[in-house]
Amino acid sequence: MRLCLPLRPLAGLLAALALASCGGGGGTASSSTSGSSGGSPATPGITLSALATITSPTGAPAISHMADAVVVGDHAILRSDSAETSQNAHPRTRFTIVDAQGRASASVDFGYTLAAGYNGDWTMQAIPDGSGFALLQLSSANKLFLFDGQARLTSPAAGIDLNTIANDGSTIFSTGAIVDGNGIWVAPVFQYPQKDGSAIYRIRLTKFDFSGKALTPTAFIASSTKGMVPRLAASAGALSIFWIDGTQPSLAYWAQGGGNPQPKGINAGLSQVGLIPVALNGSGKLGLLWGGKSSLSGPLDGVQLDANGDPVLIAGATDWSGEILSSQWVGARRGLKPGADYVNGRLLITDLVDDTAFNGDTILVADYVLGSTPLSAVTPITATVRRAAGARNVDIGSVLRQLVFSDHTLLLIGDSDHAEASVVTRH
After folding, report:
1. Cα–Cα distance between 122 and 137 in angstroms, integer?
2. Which letter does DSSP use for residue 328 in this model?
3. Which of 328, 338, 330 is CA-nearest to residue 376?
4. Is 87 helix (H, G, I), strand (E, B) or coil?
5. Do the beta carbons of residue 208 and residue 256 sit within 8 Å?
6. Is the pLDDT reported for residue 36 higher than 50?
7. What does the pLDDT average to over 118-128?
8. Which end of the chain has less neighbouring CB within 10 Å, N or C?
9. pTM surpassing 0.85?
10. Mean pLDDT over all residues of the chain?
11. What is the C-alpha separation between 45 and 172, in angstroms, rounded?
12. Which residues of 1-13 are buried (b: 16+ CB within 10 A; e: fewer)?
């Protein structure tokens, strides 16, 4: 493990209010509400500061391949590629601490010390009490690691074994997980090889506390002859699991205090969807976003779920395919997986779009005020920020995150060789 310390204390950084120049080229910021063309934003509106490169602390390499970021107290922790490599792959176990304005103060690189030789995916989740964050393997042994707000390991060095291995000849094909309240829901997909060379896949679900103790009995969710990758959202005891069985998207939904549900198909009218489950508030409201018919560069659709786990659709709709959100944006989507979060009754979406008036990358922020109407019927409040003119276009594998603080959000975009930040203020 390597620790790169700041040149000045974090408290000093947090006291600064302006976004300092962070190295690299700045961007061009613009702000607007829907239907306006810039200038002083109307009310309500959104203002974005110019994008600035997040400069790594002294002694640390540039941030590469940001995978995720979470808010812990008054700052954020960004996860990215480690400097270590094995078979030309880097474990994404480097953590960079940034303040609420996007300035880095320290970097901790765990390399392969968390799980020797592990190059699989992780999920990074903030612990609700603000004490730190959790990191969970999404394949292999499902080891859980816990960290404090300065990215110091607080769980055993070998991790916490969640005992999700069935010991029945199966292996874990994939895993979905989400933190909610006092623990983390874990939904592994077990793969059972068959004599004819095929396999059977089964999704199971258990909630664990942060010491690895099971809080619920293990529930069987679904079985298929095709590999499934579950995606979860949770809020205040409500839980949804989405997956694709071949070409058929499906869901299972728990209302607050509800019993085990029966899985149901999603009549989305699509042959391929990129499922993005979202919490829409802190009181149990959940929703789903998904990509276009054939690629992530197609339109972005979305619904909120009612108390029965059914979608709130536009009047007269018989399937989900008309719930398009991005048709009201300023440009076509460029093909990244969008970021999604919520704050103060709004769904916050971040995406990369084409800007015909600008030869370069434009990042769009779209706010949807939540109510009882379908999401697709809401006119979003939008704003955009352009990356520096002449900058290389961001990689298609780049990651967008909008981190929620008490009085603003912090927009992050992670590319293959750096990360950028913009401060987002709502009026």
Report:
1. 5
2. G
3. 328
4. coil
5. no
6. no
7. 94
8. C
9. yes
10. 86
11. 46
12. eeebebeeebeeb
